[in-house]
Write a structure and sequence with these properties.
The chain has about 550 residues and is α/β, with parallel strands linked by helices. About 20% of the residues lie in helices and about 30% in strands. Helix 1 (about 60-70) packs across helix 9 (about 300-320) and helix 2 (about 95-110) crosses helix 3.
């Protein structure tokens, strides 16, 4: 059966904007929409530079522009080079610094501009803000990068033996960066070698993605910041927007924590953390019903835009308009899942402390969904050593059940059905008797060895509801050292979440999460090229002085 390719071209132009073809320094012209306030005069501008069609409902730029212009901001939305209505080659990352500078320069020369520019946007159009910062344009006064990372070019599938990479990152490059338009071509994840599945998809679509070829199967050197890293650039006030359920949360929080500690950037660094996923679905609305689906319901979209724009306006009113002193802005505004927003002077909040849960009864870890246990008692570490063993079978990988990894909260899938597999370990705590507020980083410290030459280890922390359903809160992964065991630490990211009475925490361990993450063949072969796998045995050690614990950051117990 032939493989069908879905092609998505540009949506109609907005009647509320005027489109310009803005020249870059090399003569390439980029399609740029300008939305202006109804009041005459010069205005500060908010710039969005994106690859997903400036006129698509998916990006809801027209709706965001309506909010911003109503508050006195000119809004400029641009298709990046090589995408949709813009000219130039279709290659991500490499042109964004210079194109960002040239676009800001163009804005400052317009009759409606007061030569003050801010930037905003999610994911790749968060990255374009970091790139513009490196250009050092003096008119760029503040940025709001949301659910993104300065490391975005390394999140895509640049495989190395010491790295775990996403397979959906490869599909992103194949679909979004092959041509000017967006393509969706199904990939057979069961095909080996895996690279061949993508070759077939490219053949079916009649296209080729240079960005994919630069990463797969052998990554080529790339310089995502040719003008220098953002941390080396002139600091500008930055509001980091992160989602507790975003698949880029780990990378986003690494940016925030590094910048908050930076002597030059730290005083200008702010955090807005919400209980949302990459596609702006909210925990309060999960699973998303039709009336709350901003992809299809206009009223839901209006509410989403209002929720999105509010912290942006608050920030820009201070740093673009100077309407209020910066001291009135909270350094951190964070959402406590199931409760609401809180403010703090730092993240984690100053009153937070560490709660250590120790793994116990490892021999039960592969018995059923509950598995072994999690306890606060530190004396468990001194008990006689015990182990749990499981097999990683490359021909029977632990499946990814969450659907679209960018939309974790659209359904907030119950993953308990996987937790009785013999290659999935679980450790479950007793039900909470009072609310437990998680507020900060989560880490797992474990002692694991493998018979394979290196192995992937995925860790997830779940909220187990009273009905037995298990919903993921945070996740992380690491590569075990080759041919030896030892203590490993896994960063599961950060969260702000209330574990309600009667709910339980559960740690899950496995060696695969496919097809969200690239498989490990159990050998030293490149997983893009391997045709066969080799089963391996993993051993988790508990007690006897072996480290085996989950470290939570919590607030005081809520009575």
């Amino acid at each position: 059966m032939p493989i069908a390719t879905e092609r998505i071209g540009p949506a109609p132009l907005s009647a509320a904007a005027e489109q310009y073809m803005v020249p870059m320094r090399d003569g390439v012209e980029l399609a740029t929409d300008v939305y202006l306030p109804t009041t005459p005069g010069r205005h500060p501008a908010v710039l969005f530079r994106l690859p997903y069609d400036k006129n698509s409902r998916y990006c809801f730029m027209e709706q965001i522009a309506a909010e911003l212009t109503a508050h006195g901001y000119a809004t400029v939305v641009q298709d990046v080079r090589g995408k949709f209505r813009s000219q130039g080659e279709t290659v991500p990352f490499v042109h964004e610094a210079e194109d960002g500078y040239d676009t800001i320069e163009w804005i400052t020369r317009q009759h409606w501009s007061d030569a003050v520019v801010g930037m905003c946007g999610d994911s790749y159009f968060g990255f374009t803000q970091w790139a513009a910062v490196t250009s050092g344009h003096p008119a760029l006064k503040a940025i709001v990068p949301r659910i993104t990372s300065t490391e975005l070019a390394t999140v895509v599938p640049r495989w190395a033996p010491e790295r775990i990479v996403t397979l959906y990152g490869a599909e992103y490059l194949a679909d979004y960066w092959a041509t000017r338009h967006t393509l969706h071509t199904p990939v057979d994840h069961g095909h080996r070698p895996l690279l061949g599945a993508f070759q077939k998809a490219f053949g079916a679509s009649g296209t080729r993605s240079a960005a994919f070829d630069n990463c797969v199967p052998h990554p080529r050197p790339t310089d995502q910041f040719p003008l220098g890293h953002p941390f080396q650039a002139r600091p500008v006030p930055t509001l980091h927007g992160v989602g507790w359920f975003d698949n880029l949360l780990g990378e986003s929080m690494r940016d925030y924590t590094a910048m908050a500690a930076h002597p030059a950037w730290g005083p200008l660094t702010y955090l807005h953390a919400d209980s949302v996923d990459h596609e702006n679905h909210r925990l309060a609305h999960s699973p998303v019903q039709p009336e709350n689906d901003h992809n299809s319901d206009d009223e839901a979209l209006r509410r989403t835009v209002e929720h999105y724009v509010a912290p942006v306006l608050e920030f820009f009113d201070v740093f673009l308009k100077g309407e209020r002193p910066a001291r009135l802005l909270p350094r951190v505004r964070w959402h406590l899942g199931h409760e609401g927003f809180r403010t703090a002077t730092t993240w984690p909040p100053p009153q937070a402390s560490e709660l250590v849960l120790h793994l116990a009864e490892p021999e039960l870890a592969v018995r059923d969904t509950d598995g072994g246990s999690l306890h606060e008692n530190p004396e468990l570490a001194a008990d006689p050593p015990r182990t749990a063993q499981w097999t990683h079978d490359p021909h029977d990988l632990v499946p990814s059940v969450t659907g679209d990894p960018f939309s974790a909260l659209r359904a907030w899938v119950d993953e308990s059905s996987l937790q009785s597999r013999p290659d999935v370990l679980t450790f479950t705590a007793a039900p909470a008797s009072v609310p437990l507020d998680l507020a900060g980083p989560v880490r797992a410290a474990l002692t694991v060895e493998s018979t394979a030459p290196g192995m992937h280890l995925f860790a997830k922390l779940f909220d187990v509801f009273p009905d037995g359903t298990a919903h993921m809160l945070v996740r992380g992964q690491t590569v075990l050292p080759p041919q030896r065991g030892g203590a490993v630490e896994i960063d599961l990211g950060h969260t702000g979440y209330r574990l309600r009475p009667g709910h339980r925490l559960r740690l899950q361990l496995a060696c695969s999460d496919y097809p969200h993450y690239l498989w490990h063949p159990g050998t030293e072969e490149n997983p893009w090229l391997a045709t066969q796998g080799r089963p391996s045995t993993q051993t988790l050690s508990v007690g006897g002085g072996f480290i085996a614990q989950v470290r939570l950051t919590v607030l005081g117990t809520q009575e």
